[in-house]
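Prompt: May I have another protein with tokenized structure?
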Amino acid sequence: MSKLADCPPLFASMVFLMAALGCSSVNQPVTHVFSASPAALSFSTPAPHTTTQQTVSVQNTGTSQLVIQSVSVSGSSAFSVVKTSLPQSLQPGQSGDVVISFAPSTTGTFDGSLVIASNSSDTIAVPLAGTVGTSPITVSVTPVSASLQVGSSQQFAATISGTANTSVTWYVNGVPDGNSSYGTINSAGLYIAPASVPSGGAVTVMAKSVADATKSASVSVSIVASGAAVTVTISPTSAAVQGDMSQPFTAKVSGTSNTAVTWLVNGLNGGNNTNGTISSNGLYTAPSCPSSSSVTVTAQSAYDANASADSVVTLTPATLSSTDRYVATNGSDSNDGSACKPWATIQHAASNAQPGWTIHVGPGTYNVGNYVSTNNSGTSSKHILYVGSYDKSTWTWNTRVISTGTSVWNVGGQYVDVRGFDMTSSNPSATWGIHGQGAYSRYIDNYIHDIYSDSPGAGVMIGGGADYQQVIGNVIARIAHTPGGSTDNQGIYVQENHTTIANNIVFDCAKVGIQIWSGAAAGKPQYNIVSGNTVFGSYRGFDIGAANSSYADNNTITDNIFYGNTDLGMYTATGYQGYVGPHNTIAHNNSHGNATNYYNLTHTNDIVADPLFVDYRSDGSGDYRLQSGSACRDTGTTSGAPSTDFLGVTRPQGSAPDCGAYEYVP
């Protein structure tokens, strides 16, 4: 038997011989040690057939050469090794990368392991976890702080996202349900302060997710001795409010210098969608379709939760508006389209749409068959607006449109706005996300993704002979799947005139992020504006040109970032130079970190430096705002620049607009 067989293991990832442990002596033992970072990977995708990738770095942390014998994935076929830069052997201190892909074919949760074996006794197993159609669990507690007199109470509310199990366990100073020294809290979140001021004058109230005990949120509660009686009055003491309408309330607090109040609806801080909501300033907004005839609005002293005043609000349903129609997953196309009687399909709403209408499409998934077709037109003063439920500050789109055809949404009508939708297709032959063929139409704040076909197509296609269209503030990702394929697959493709492309974030396009090109009509593409966009992680960033009798001229390309694209940053193809006119303005752009940053273009005032994103990740999971030291700050031009950024922040914040989709806010 070898000497090593007599030794107990010292660490799971190290074989080390020590006489002090009673092992047989070995002269100058060889230590093979290697590590993986991160130690675990967690993937999340919104739907099946979407692919995300992450990288594990493997390093030899030992003192001798390490031979990598195998790299494999076990547990689930949703995980695979797509690339590795690991050499056959690692010298001490040397490292290499392994790229793991998560490509689920169904919804649900998945578990696996990345297993790396070496010539040492070490075998690293990196846990892999994936979720499809779900979001990470998060916990928040309101109010975010409180100040109470001894013996008084405060109602807390916990909000859980990312799981259907919204139950929480409440703690006070780490004690479940609290105790007489710190105060107690019940399962509904009602905290009662102790009879005397605790040590330090404050306690911590925490809500911990039952679904995932590692997820929690805490607030600090100051406890003070009792003083003068605190009273609250509210005005008005009663009100009648129709669905979707608002009523302001005011409150006065006496007996303390802290005159702040917490507003509640039926005992819930801030209210909810069922009973109506109330702002921190006391503005109550009724639900569209109340489930009860009345609710109670309460103003509660922030200093003494026992002091409060109530107002009874009588509720009536919203009536059919002349300009608002609603679509919901629980609706019916035989309804009248009001907030309380919504339609079931976007297509039914589109077939009935009139100039000036706003069509509110509620949260949920809408399977639309081949595609949505919006052919009815608005007017210059009365656009037709289709709007979903979304929050771009968190990259959250709650209204999802899934087609089974080759496009998701075809816009044939003029003066049509499509805003705030998650769009994709389950058809592997899909070529278009939005096919814009209506003059003066606008496509704003959408998430268009996973249009997989390698046939000619785009996330947003501007065509149909329709000028004056706009593509503003969208996220466009994963268009086609063969990098550098022989056909055109763009994030945004413009072949008309007078189109505005601004504040979009485009990544992972198999061919070109943004392209201005036409080969179909004389005099096109011209007078288009591309400004304030961020394009990264694609095959090519930007292309301009024309063919046949077309002529690309008088276009303005400014204040953009084209970063980390595997082939070209900004270019026009050789052989088409004669079809690019002399009056294009291509200036103040950052094309950096691409294999070739500029090709065959006349360009000026380049920003030649790393844009310094807050957290750059090529798969779209990063933070693409600018760091304070970014060379892209205050270096843009007002020529063509949008007046706001991706999140609606006013441009410029400094002496000039910033490049890219985000304006830096000091």
Residues 1-30 form one domain.
